[in-house]
């Protein structure tokens, strides 16, 4: 029988947790950052480089992959791990959020959401059952429930309606997912910026005894203070012995402050998207390589980094590549940025183990 899904908390420092998720395809050291691999690729990266910077798991998107190349096609070709040559765990988002943020002509009912593809306008239907079916066809290791994320600001009645619908959809996803020992289906807490609704959502999902819990409905443009306040309210209502995943987050500072509130898993397009736009994350802050002041600078981004992209190339060369829109510019900066994010996660894991996380706080991101 496949090794079952298990999560262990190895150390804590305040509300911060150092843990490990054990799955048949490998372990996930938490706090963990998941590089975004929306269409089955972490843009501008080879998968062995993604592994090389220390990522244990990547994120894929049901919405994008069902539209192109199609979930049944990926299944026929052996599943997403085989297709993309990534043998470690994959978490897939369920598609609801992407439908609402990307597609046009969508209609949401109790049954699910119907929408037209943003690629070719073809009509699709996505129900909780179909989302879990697609994630199964992709052979996803951690599958997300189908939910409805409310755009903020919103009327409390609207937030409540979407939160309650998402709870009913969580039950249907749990039923559709069934019992798959080596895999997991996570519920997603909704409730917008309303404390009472967040508590109701978290308590109802906790009662479903799922294998993990995501906090959704955030990183949608709200101030960081609102996001953190929702974590202060939500995390205590979730079981301590299950992983907590904050969707779509975030900057290094967002991640540090969210780990301090008990979050274990993150995903964000920032490091990869920034890399494609000429932006480098370094221990001394962000560097915009488009800026002419780098044209003659022989120094690397970070001579102490163990990532070749940060250590072996001059800023002048990176500036040249970015200005010339050379593919290698996006490749090297994405490599640097993902390495920076994984080093940040590694430093936080070590600080929690050493009980210096609370004390050191912000300096970790420098
Ligand atoms: C931060 C940054 C740079 O990330 C970009 C852009 C806008 O924010 C992002 C990231 N924020 C984000 N919040 C989410 C909430 C949910 C949710 O409630 N449910 C489900 N199933 N999936 C979710 C995925 C989420 N991603 O959302 C899109 C629109 C995917 O682009 C991302 O700003």
Structure overview:
With 366 residues, the protein is of the alpha/beta class. Helix content is 40%, strand content 20%. It contains 15 helices and 16 strands. The strands form four sheets. An eight-stranded parallel sheet has the order 4-14-13-12-11-10-6-5. A three-stranded antiparallel sheet has the order 1-2-3. The structure holds the ligand CC1(C)O[C@@H]2[C@@H](CO[C@@]3(CNc4nc5cc6c(=O)[nH]c(N)nc6cc5[nH]4)OC(C)(C)O[C@@H]23)O1. The site of the ligand CC1(C)O[C@@H]2[C@@H](CO[C@@]3(CNc4nc5cc6c(=O)[nH]c(N)nc6cc5[nH]4)OC(C)(C)O[C@@H]23)O1 has 19 residues, from helix 5.
Report the portion of residues in β strands: 15-25%
The number of E-state strands comes to 16
Q: Tell the overall outline.
A: globular
| Whole-angstrom Rg | 20 Å
User: What is the makeup of the main sheet?
Assistant: 8 strands, parallel
Walk across the major sheet and give the strand order.
4-14-13-12-11-10-6-5
Q: Output the structural class.
A: alpha/beta
Regions with little confidence, pLDDT below 50 for 5+ residues: none
**What is the CA-CA span between the terminal residues?**
45 Å
Say which molecules are bound, naming each kind only once: the ligand CC1(C)O[C@@H]2[C@@H](CO[C@@]3(CNc4nc5cc6c(=O)[nH]c(N)nc6cc5[nH]4)OC(C)(C)O[C@@H]23)O1
* Average pLDDT over all residues: 96
Residues in helix, %: 25-40%
The count of helical stretches stands at 15
């Amino acid at each position: 029988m496949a090794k079952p899904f298990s999560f262990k908390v190895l150390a804590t420092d305040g509300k911060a947790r150092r843990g490990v998720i054990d799955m048949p395809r490998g372990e996930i050291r938490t706090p963990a950052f998941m590089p975004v691999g929306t269409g089955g690729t972490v843009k501008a990266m080879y998968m062995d480089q993604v592994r090389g910077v220390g990522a244990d798991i990547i994120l894929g998107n049901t919405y994008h992959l069902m539209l192109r190349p199609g979930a049944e096609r990926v299944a026929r070709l052996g599943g997403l791990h085989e297709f993309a040559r990534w043998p470690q765990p994959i978490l897939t988002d369920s598609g609801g959020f992407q439908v609402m943020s990307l597609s046009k002509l969508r209609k949401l009912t109790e049954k699910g959401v119907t929408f037209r593809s943003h690629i070719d306008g073809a009509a699709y239907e996505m129900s909780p059952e179909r989302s879990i079916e697609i994630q199964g066809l992709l052979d996803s290791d951690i599958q997300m429930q189908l939910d409805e994320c409310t755009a903020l600001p919103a009327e409390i009645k609207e937030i409540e309606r979407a939160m309650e619908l998402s709870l009913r959809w969580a039950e249907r996803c749990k039923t559709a997912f069934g019992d798959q020992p080596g895999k997991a289906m996570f519920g997603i807490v909704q409730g917008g910026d309303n404390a009472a609704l967040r508590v109701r959502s978290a308590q109802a999902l906790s009662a479903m005894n799922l294998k993990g819990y995501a906090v959704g409905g955030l990183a949608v443009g709200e101030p960081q203070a609102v996001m953190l306040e929702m974590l202060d309210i939500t995390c205590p209502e979730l079981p301590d012995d299950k992983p907590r995943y904050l969707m779509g987050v975030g900057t290094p500072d967002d991640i540090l402050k969210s780990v301090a509130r008990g979050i274990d898993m993150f995903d964000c397009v920032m490091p990869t998207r920034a890399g494609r736009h000429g932006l480098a994350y370094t221990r001394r802050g962000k560097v915009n390589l488009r800026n002419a002041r780098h044209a003659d600078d022989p120094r690397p981004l970070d001579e102490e980094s163990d990532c070749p992209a940060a250590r072996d190339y001059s800023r002048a060369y990176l500036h040249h590549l970015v200005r010339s829109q050379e593919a290698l510019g996006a490749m090297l900066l994405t490599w640097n940025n993902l390495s920076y994010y994984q080093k940040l996660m590694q430093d936080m894991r070590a600080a929690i183990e050493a009980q210096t996380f609370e004390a050191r706080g912000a300096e970790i991101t420098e």
